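Archive entry. Fields below.
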Amino acid sequence: MPDSPFASELSRRRFMAWTLGAGASLALGGCERSSTPPSTPPGAQGTTGGKGYSGPSVTLAFWNGFTGGDGAYIRKIVEDFNKATPAIQVRMNIYPWANFFQKLAGAVISGQAPDVAVMHVDSIPTNAARNLITPIDDIAQALGLQESNFTSPVAWKGGIYKGRRYGIPLDLHPLGMFFNKAVLEKTGLNPDKPPQTGDEYMEALEQLKGHGIQGHWMSPFHFTGTFQFQSLLWQFGGDLFDKDVTQATFDSDAGVQAMTWMVELVKKGHSPENVAQDADVIALQNGQNAFNWNGIWQINALAEVPQLRWGVAPIPKIGTQPAVWGNSHQFVLPRQESPNPDRQAAARYFIQWMSQRSVDWLKSGKIPVLRSVAESPEFQAMKAQVEFAKQAPYIRIPPAVAGINEALALVDRAVNLSVLGKEPPAAALKSAAAQATQVVRYNREKYGD
Amino acid sequence: MKTKAQTASIRHTGRATPYLFLAPYLLLFGTFVLLPALQGLWISLHDWDFLLPRRPWVGLRNYTTLFSPGSRDSGDFWQSMKATGLFTLFSVPPLVVVPLLVALLLNRQFPGRSFFRAVYFAPYVLGVAVVGLLWRFLLDPNIGLINHYLSATIPWTTALPWAWISLVGMTVWWTLGFNALIYLAGLQDIPRELYEAAKVDGATRSQQFLHVTLPGLKPVLLFVFTVTILNSANMFGQSFLVTQGAPGNETRTALMLIAETGLRDFRMGSAAAMSYVLALALLGVSALNFRLFRQEDS
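PREDICTED_STRUCTURE:
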């Protein structure tokens, strides 16, 4: 097809890639359908992979889903960037995460893709497989980033799909334990020494119960019931899927143990039945319960409640090994229909700048991914974040497989049915896992993993 | 008075006139309804992800899976169809009856009538996101205002039948203004003379209602009934925002599942097939509905 305009485009790209020695392994699969450009556009064309920027003035579009309290923080950092780097001006758009991915897909295929975006690490494989984001190994190489620079291996490895890097980590945000100090004091518990083992935890709950307090409200929803279930599943030595992600294994003995523990809290009266979305954390603020396993992002929400005395700690080790659910925001470069080398270089510089200055971002309730940042005095001054960061070595995230969130939605259903007392844990987990297995097998075929 | 020549010229050019008047609508209908519908049919025969170059033809597989028990989609799909059916069953009677009562009240002469008309219609102008958020605050089982004032712990959003009661209740509150408005217009179309004649014949109020008002409203009733059924069968936002489909997937409606399948999981083929099965079911219900009303006529 030498005469088609696409072929000449392709050869132009290949030429540039070869001459610059970057991204030589252009996926030639793009030939199959002329409207789909090669899935791997040349990486840093004439750029330094983000080390610096010396091109003409450009304006970059930056998309993310920070609709909560963290929106104000990212806005501030972007403003700082714009002031520090007059040649690159960044315009930011914030969409709710649920809409973000639909919008991103539409924008990429209509040639309106943003220059930079942030997404969760578990969304990277799906978006890479769907050809919406491009590999950025060159940034990591140029900056000399490697696993040992990072506080958590999962945040670094999670950005890799099929051997190529698509995400540069910005942060980690695990689950942790919030507690209401006033409630603990009132019921004779030590507010400075929250329970950290399974036995201690049950004793504390019993003591709270003696004072008429349901200590741990168990959410039947994704936020945060599913996060709690996943944490416990890993603590009991189980995993969501088998090693090759061909089968869901969250209905294993470990899974049943984890779910049973959660359901028992309701049955033993440590949690009310039918807890609604977010009611658990609101109850903590109101002094109606004592403990809430919630995401680190709640730090700023709690800080805004006047007179509330609260603390944080790693979630207790209920099972046999430490583990906790977490996720990571990562910078990605969406695929451009017609890439502009200056903008690509500027986008790389922006990522590099942002990831180095993530300490400001951590104030929004995140923990660092870079060791250098974690050890900095600025971060060490963030008391609550530092507690959460103790969990970094054993944070767990879902496997890097395309379409994984479809399968994980079935975990939500099992949690919901179990915690609401509709089905016994083993039965709810078994049917959800059977369907999740169908899902991962279908996805394997669809995305060719 | 028209001259003969004018009449003739209208008749002559008139052939095209209706079509010219229809053209703008047909154009929009064709572009945004008919073509997408046909494309949807085409999509439903593939394993379709609009971003992947490979969209293998699967024939009727997307449909047959819906009808084979134990497949990935059939359980979820029929559960969601059941949820849609239940919601329609629970919500249509109050949405047909309550607005009629409201319309009868608002049709009377009394001071502040316009104010009350506005009050009943006001919720209808709110978007589903606002309504959903509002009711989530009111209905929250643990911290909601309703349970607070009742001093109860009713699981309004997390257990059955409460979740259905909540969803139907908020929908009635939200949309009754629209049906009431249609009824009001219908009531004002009933000739006054009929009421006067009925009064002369000694008809009581309820007899007037049964023999004058109801027959006079018949075409309006058919419209309200049909539109309400279709709207209820398209319920999505309320479940999505207030119950998140819980408990389990009991309140996940067909439209919610279709949106999840097509827009979250990017399985447009399956989602399209589900839409067609839903559309066929609704077509059947509407046909039945029209037939029932016609039979009463004869």
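CURATOR_NOTE: The radius of gyration of chain B is 24 Å.
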